[in-house]
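Progress report, Aim 2. The chain analyzed during this reporting quarter is listed below.
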Amino acid sequence: MIAAAAFIAAGAYFRRRRIAFGFALALGALFFVGALGIQLRKGEQVPGGEILAFANGDETMVTAHVMHGGEIRAGSYGGSRQTIDVETEEIQTDEGNRAIRAGLRLGIYTRNSDPEYEEDGKLTAMRVYR
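Predicted structure tokens for the chain:
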């Protein structure tokens, strides 16, 4: 706040003497006022941000529905990949269940199967989620 006031005062002083320098000081004052506005803003929650509490590496079970299904594309090393956008409905942990609505993007990767190791000689394809 003090820095913004000092920049405004200096910009007003140099307004007629050195126009370019006064303009630069006015821009600096705007910068400090913007920084103050960011700091004073209320701690707004990001929509769906409560899911970040589960991003600690513990095992969770997510119940969700598909919002946007992905196409199967060629992946690296001869495999395939699919990207799916889902919206969570419920998250289960050791502590219990919580109903949370948040968006997730899942990446599913497979590699080509070796027919020698498949059961009954059948190759299994990746399921397309829609």
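The chain has two domains: 2-40, 49-115. Residues 49-115 form one domain. These observations will guide the mutagenesis work planned for the next reporting period.
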